[in-house]
Amino acid sequence: MFKEGRGFMKSAWTTDPMSDTDQLREVPMPPIENAFDESKLIALPEPKTANLKKRDIFQVLEERQSRRKLGGGPISMADLSFLLWACFGKRDIVNGRILRIVPSGGSRHPFETYFYADKVTGLEQGLYRYIATKNSVILVSKKEGLKDELNTGIKGQWFNCAVAIFWVFIPYRCEWRYTHHSHKISLIDVGHIGQNAYLGAEALGIGCCTIGAYLQEIDKVLGVDGENEFCVYAGVFGPPGE
Q: Which of 13, 88, 194, 242 stands the most exposed, by the fewest C-beta atoms within 10 Å?
């Protein structure tokens, strides 16, 4: 098992890695974002209007840490907007490709951002998806008991958070271009997302703890199929506790 894991981390890049791809076969590029009902969008405040507690990049980098003692209080819609933007916000769309705040191999950005809003001022409790192209969110579910199911999925690591974020992998977005090389590339990409989550939270003065120890059964709770879409990373956020 160790050998298999170590092997996955090593480069398997061939001399001609992109000679047999759907991109070269001129298969249409997969959508940059999953479909949504525009009439149900909930607009977020402009991210750059957020009230940052820390603007000095040296301070943000030096003070970034995982905070598992969260205070249980709410965050604002402006804070939520900045946090989501920092993780996965849109910079531009060029020739059908989306450029985001975070880097991604080949600008494939093979993720969707789901979050459970537990205590967000002005937003009712429930599971949402972030629609970066519209700087908006859309409600996915308000099912009773959903918070408890999600907490079970992250092995009880809710830590009294205001918001829990779940990053869901869309494999074909990267496979279309990078075939079997996609999966290592994509795990590197989600690391970029997690780091931006930490830096964004630190700038806001919000506690953050990202989570790699979760149960894959969480896919069913999020409403994704577990094969063409599945969770690979999570994080909890909220005002820090004592």
A: 242
Q: What is d(CA 140, CA 128) in angstroms, rounded to the nearest whole number? A: 5
- Are 206 and 51 in contact by the 8 Å Cβ rule? The answer is no
Residue corresponding to tokens 């607009």:
43
Closest C-alpha among 46, 45, 43, 65 to residue 54: 65
pLDDT at 17: 65
E-only strand ranges, 118-198: 126-131, 136-141, 163-169
Tokens of residue 24, six digits: 């070269």
pTM, entire model: 0.96
Which residue matches tokens 């999925």? 153
What does the block give as tokens for 168? 């869901």
Joined tokens for residue 12: 């398997």
SS3 137: strand
Per residue in 166-199, pLDDT tens? 999 999 999 999 998 999 999 999 999 999 999 9
* Helix/strand/coil percent split, the chain, to 5: 35, 25, 40
CA–CA distance, 153 with 233 (Å, rounded to integer):
11
Across 191-216, b (16+ Cβ under 10 Å) vs e yields ebbbebbbbbbbbbebbbbbbeebee
